[in-house]
Write a structure and sequence with these properties.
381 residues, alpha/beta, de novo design (two linked rop proteins), Rossmann fold, 2 domains, 8 strands, 13% strand
């Protein structure tokens, strides 16, 4: 995974470690939504450089910063400064989760940090003045439920606005998804159901709901839930997925005709070719799949392909991809786009010159998120 980025056309905090550089770049990009402060990022980054590539050190340093910001939040809340406290709780949540996401999801120490991050986000949701965030549970079968947040639409007179189901990626969570622009999405008059799907977030860590290739099951469960609510228009539902979620969303919309629009925020045509590039230890994937051997894991990975599936999609489709994506090459993105059966489909490639050329536009997330949100607003109006 480690490679030198001396000639990189994007910001590389750790030129010899792609995974850490991408994470830092992501954190800086999300500062505009109140998720981080560049001074706090730099303080941690300087300490991280002493043990480059040591993920346990990464977890310790980000947890320490999370605890520091959490203490600020509690102090401000005790003084009645609720909006200030909310801002600190959101940053603390983000630091905890960005530290934890590089660790195996069943690691006991990491799980304790993750629990604290959820508490931070719930406190933020209660204290912030906008948007309105409602924790919900999506029935998933066999007595299990997928944890989610319904973030309510703003700037609309509609009592039942359109809604977007937002699925996370391999090591993304519903809290991180919220931070990636959902505040701006709901300002466009759409509600957003942010889901910890199978194999991600709370679902895999605390509920033993493991990763599966047939994500249309989760996609249908989300729609079934939305159809029970009176405050959204389930007949105008789009589906969005980030990173590996680009596979989830495409598969769900291809096999679940109730979706009226689909966005793949980053291509994922055949994930069995992608996971090795990411440099994530095999045992981490085994945990989220509940696989007992690498051989069993590989058998499951071979099912993560959109061949024979994407051609069934009929709703409008948008694929965004970075021209210099370090994880998913352009040929995979082109294959993903060509296979989609929709007549109304758009392939938006972001260049290094304009920005957004990295994985899921983490080097310029404003370009990626506004493109996606404006497109969804148009298709679901």
């Amino acid at each position: 995974m480690s490679r030198t980025h001396a000639d990189a056309k994007w910001f590389t905090y750790f030129p010899d470690n792609l995974r850490w550089s991408l994470s830092i770049c992501w954190m800086i990009s999300c500062a505009r939504w109140g998720a981080s402060e560049i001074g706090e990022i730099d303080q941690v980054g300087r300490r991280l450089g002493k043990k480059l590539g040591d993920d346990a050190h990464w977890l310790r340093e980000w947890s320490a910063m999370g605890n520091r910001v959490f203490a600020l939040a509690e102090k401000e809340q005790n003084q009645g400064h609720n909006l200030t406290a909310a801002a600190h709780y959101l940053r603390a949540c983000y630091y905890f989760q960005m530290g934890e996401r590089l660790i195996s999801p069943k690691n006991k120490k990491a799980l304790n940090i993750y629990r604290k991050s959820i508490d931070c986000f719930r406190r933020y949701a209660r204290l912030t003045d906008r948007p309105r965030i409602q924790p919900v549970e999506i029935p998933y079968g066999k007595g299990k439920k997928l944890p989610a947040y319904l973030v309510h639409a703003e700037n609309t007179k509609k009592t039942k606005p359109p809604v977007v189901v937002f699925f996370d990626g391999r090591d993304v969570t519903k809290e991180i998804q919220y931070i990636c622009g959902v505040q701006d999405l709901v300002r466009r008059g759409m509600s957003c159901l942010i889901v910890d799907g199978p194999g991600t977030g709370e679902s895999v860590r605390f509920r033993d709901i493991y990763l599966r290739h047939d994500y249309e099951v989760a996609g249908s469960a989300a729609l079934d839930y939305l159809e029970t609510r009176k405050d959204v228009n389930a007949k105008k539902t789009g589906v969005l997925g980030i990173s590996l979620g680009g596979y989830y969303a495409t598969r769900a919309a291809s096999l679940e005709p109730r979706y009226k629009a689909c966005v793949a925020w980053g291509a994922n045509w055949e994930y069995q070719k992608t996971w090795k590039v990411r440099g994530i230890p095999a045992h981490s994937y085994m945990e989220i799949m509940n696989a007992h051997s690498q051989e069993e894991m590989q058998v499951e990975f071979d099912k993560f392909s959109l061949k024979g599936v994407a051609g069934k999609m009929r709703c409008p489709f948008l694929l965004t991809h970075g021209a210099d994506d370090q994880m998913v090459p352009m040929r995979e993105a082109r294959a993903h786009f060509r296979a989609v059966g929709s007549k109304d489909k758009t392939f938006r490639v972001f260049s290094a010159r304009e920005g957004g050329a990295q994985h899921c536009q983490i080097d310029n997330m404003t370009l990626g998120t506004t493109c996606i949100q404006d497109w969804l607003q148009e298709k679901l109006k």
